[in-house]
Amino acid sequence: MASAHFQLSAHAQRDLFKILAHSRRCFGEKSATRYNHLFFTAFETIADDPRLLSSRELLDMRIYHLRHCRKKAAMNGLIVKTPRHFVLYRIKDSGEIEILRLLHDEMDIDQQAKEI
Q: Where are the domains of the chain?
């Protein structure tokens, strides 16, 4: 099956920038690089199968936790041990995946989704 394309909304791009800046500051460049790779592995995994079993519906969107693809995103045998973010996304009528937000798992995810 051919993979759908994905795009990051402006808000998701800002989320990613902030998350990686925090990761770089607190955990170092190599950790930030692994976390960035984990995000893009998740985006590609979602694009390959937007309704994957490890995602769930949330309003007219879907949500997927990074922990579900951390082994797949290993770099040189190293994984992100405790990823803390969800990918909130929408499947457009065209089949394209719109990555809407990247949300920390301590956030009120339902409230964040209602604000989109």
A: 6-114
